[in-house]
Automatic annotation (TrEMBL):
Record-given protein name: RWD domain-containing protein 1
A Pfam family the protein falls into: RWD
Lineage of the organism: Eukaryota, Metazoa, Chordata, Craniata, Vertebrata
Residues of the signal peptide: none
Organism encoding this protein: Struthio camelus australis
Protein family: Belongs to the RWDD1/GIR2 family.
Top-level taxon of origin: Eukaryota
GO cellular component term, pick one: cytoplasm
């Protein structure tokens, strides 16, 4: 509470919400000026400053102040007005949390849909299958050709079994020696 003047009585009160998620708060500073016939007449009030509030939230607070002031004519009402604004600020923090959770859920749903689309793939039809089969057979044929070429090139340096036996006569009796042992 900061008293700005005595005649007419003018003061400001800073109202802060309770800390929400991640210690988020919203805050507003209200300026009240008593009129001559207060409390039979509503005080003058305005929002001097605000923090983390959107324009529509500020308008809602002003409407709330108007409504509460009209309901409490004839009674001392500053405490009631400040309490109502305090509750409204707490609601705004809760709404911010709810919005954030909804956005998070929406992103999760979108990611899930995207994942489903990725795994959904192309529906198999006879035409699709025949096209795929032709490409697959061509790829297999190419792989077999490469393999055969590699074997031919590797086979030129290799000796056949007959050639080995003709070059080394010890191979004739090697199996017999192995069996004797």
């Amino acid at each position: 509470l900061t008293v700005l003047s005595e005649k007419p009585t003018t003061f400001t009160i800073t109202v802060t919400s309770e800390a929400g998620e991640n210690d988020e708060t919203v805050q507003t500073t209200l300026k009240f000026t008593y009129r001559e016939k207060y409390p039979d007449e509503t005080p003058l009030y305005e929002i001097v400053s605000q923090e983390n509030l959107e324009d529509n939230d500020v308008m809602d607070i002003i409407k709330l102040l108007e409504q509460q002031a009209e309901e409490n004519l004839g009674m001392v009402m500053i405490f009631t007005l400040v309490s109502a604004v305090q509750e409204k600020l707490n609601e705004i923090v809760d709404q911010m949390k709810t919005r954030r959770e909804e956005e998070k859920k929406q992103k999760e749903r979108e990611a899930e849909e995207e994942e489903k689309q990725r795994f959904h793939g192309t529906p198999v039809t006879i035409e699709n299958f025949l096209n795929w089969k032709a490409k697959f057979d061509a790829e297999l044929l190419e792989i077999k050709r490469k393999k055969m070429k590699e074997e031919e090139q590797a086979g030129k340096n290799k000796l056949s079994g007959k050639q080995l036996f003709e070059m080394d006569h010890n191979l004739d009796t090697s199996d017999i020696q192995f069996l004797e042992e």
